[in-house]
Amino acid sequence: MRSKNFIGFVTGLFLFFGMVFSVFSEEIDLGNRKFDENDVINALNNPPKTDTSDDYKPRAFQTVPKEKPKALSVEITFKKNSYRLTADARKKLDVVGKAFNSDQLIRFPFLIEGHTDASGNDNYNMRLSKQRANEVKRYLTQNHNVNPYRLETEGKGENELLLQEDPYNGRNRRVRIVNMGN
């Protein structure tokens, strides 16, 4: 029973720090425009620096970074009610995968957030957004040999719509990538 409580506590910490990184990040929205490997590198490089006195602590117990983490919102598209990647999404993830393996980004861990539009109930959207984030992780690890330990996933559901004024817009069905630092 104690181990279940501990696991719940650690999971809660990871979710908390995922929210901290999500809310307090410096985001670049590439939207649906064409981008290349250098655009991704420039958007996600220079992650936040943490207090060096925390270097010996596990990530979950480190203090909040002094600078905002770099985040990239990419329109990785999904059909409504689906977590399957479209052909356009795979092309964009090919660029992201190359950037993740570049000399500039190879040492960093990333949080992959899945998002939905406002159609569907909260529980369904949360599950679907997590599936979307997991599908992106799967694609990057299988097709670009990105180390899976560098990628954490989180489902946001409809909680952080890109287009608040148009909650059913397909652009809300997206993926957001956050550089979680060294």
Question: Which helices and strands, and how do they pair?
Answer:
Layout (H helix, E strand, L loop, with lengths): L1 H22 L2 E6 L5 H8 L25 E5 L12 H14 L9 E5 L7 H23 L6 E5 L19 E5 L3
Parallel strand pairs: 1-2, 3-4
Antiparallel strand pairs: 2-5, 3-5
Record field, number of beta strands: 5
Structural class: alpha/beta
Shape: globular
Rg, Å, rounded: 16 Å
Compute the number of structural domains.
1
The CATH level-2 architecture is identified as 2-Layer Sandwich
Share of β-strand residues: 5-15%
Notes on the structure:
Mean pLDDT is 77; it is low at 3-25. With 182 residues, the chain is an alpha/beta fold. It starts with a helix and ends with a strand. It has a single domain, classed as 60s Ribosomal Protein L30, Chain: A. β1, α2 and β2 form a beta-alpha-beta unit. The chain is 37% helix and 14% strand. The chain is globular and about 40 Å long. The protein contains four helices and five strands. The protein has helices spanning 2-23, 37-44, 87-100, 122-144; strands at 26-31, 70-74, 110-114, 151-155, 175-179. A five-stranded mixed beta sheet has the order 1-2-5-3-4, with helices on both faces.
